[in-house]
Specification:
Strand content: 15-25%
Helix content: 25-40%
Shape: globular
CATH topology: Rossmann fold
CATH superfamily: Vaccinia Virus protein VP39
Structural class: alpha/beta
CATH class: Alpha Beta
């Protein structure tokens, strides 16, 4: 039996899912890595005519996905994606899961063996409420978007938007679009986004082998 992964739904899941769906071309081949109960890819299949596959290691959530009629694969992403054939998907989704993976950079690099683009949603641990709790209370923060006590949290990595940009510079991929999620909406351009956003959606593409503009593009994203 696969180890249990704590499913951490996004408190703004409806907003996040709508954002992801708008970034996916109708009829695409889509894989959702850490799909939970498969509700997002079920929408992509039913409303967007996508060919979908969900990957989830938690047995209960895996069964719920199967019962909803979604094709599912039960697998532990910490073990890699070797079971999946190369370039078999147009889009890979990784929503509120990356921070739970033991080696997130390895997984991101591997995603671009199986997919052309990736849509990644991560919490922003540099949000002002998080910073304020650490400053004033001197303890691990608990907020509406990070609702777990430190000893119950599924998160094994704690990152900010700045951290993710730096991670992209280490990988085989580049950030095409960064969308800070502030309140109930995504903002294309936001002042002090790393303070204000509780999470962020990243659209990623694989770097070409001769991509000499990587650092320049990343910096343009930061300043946009």
């Amino acid at each position: 039996m696969c180890a249990k992964r704590i499913y951490m739904p996004d408190p703004r899941a409806a907003v996040t899912n709508d954002l992801i769906i708008r970034k996916i071309v109708e009829g695409s081949r889509v894989i959702d890595l850490g799909c939970g109960d498969a509700s997002l890819i079920k929408r992509l299949r039913d409303e967007h005519s996508c060919d979908v596959l969900g990957v989830e290691r938690d047995e209960e959530l895996f069964i719920r996905g199967i019962e909803s009629g979604v094709p599912m694969l039960q697998a532990d992403m910490n073990q890699g994606l070797d079971e999946l054939p190369a370039q078999s998907f147009d889009f890979a989704i990784l929503s509120q899961t990356l921070q739970q993976i033991d080696r997130p950079l390895d997984l991101l690099n591997e995603i671009f063996r199986i997919a052309r683009r990736a849509l990644v949603v991560v919490p922003n641990f540099a949000h002002w409420k998080v910073r304020l709790q650490i400053l004033l209370r001197g303890r691990a923060p608990v907020t509406s978007h990070l609702p777990y006590e430190w000893y119950e949290s599924p998160n094994v990595h704690f990152l900010s938007m700045v951290d993710f940009r730096e991670l992209a510079n280490e990988g085989n991929f580049k950030i095409v679009r960064e969308l800070p999620i502030i309140g109930s909406r995504a903002v294309k351009r936001a002042s002090f986004a790393n303070w204000r956003a509780h999470s962020a959606l990243y659209v990623l593409e694989r770097n070409s082998t001769d991509d000499s503009q990587k650092a320049t593009e990343s910096q343009q994203l930061v300043t946009a």
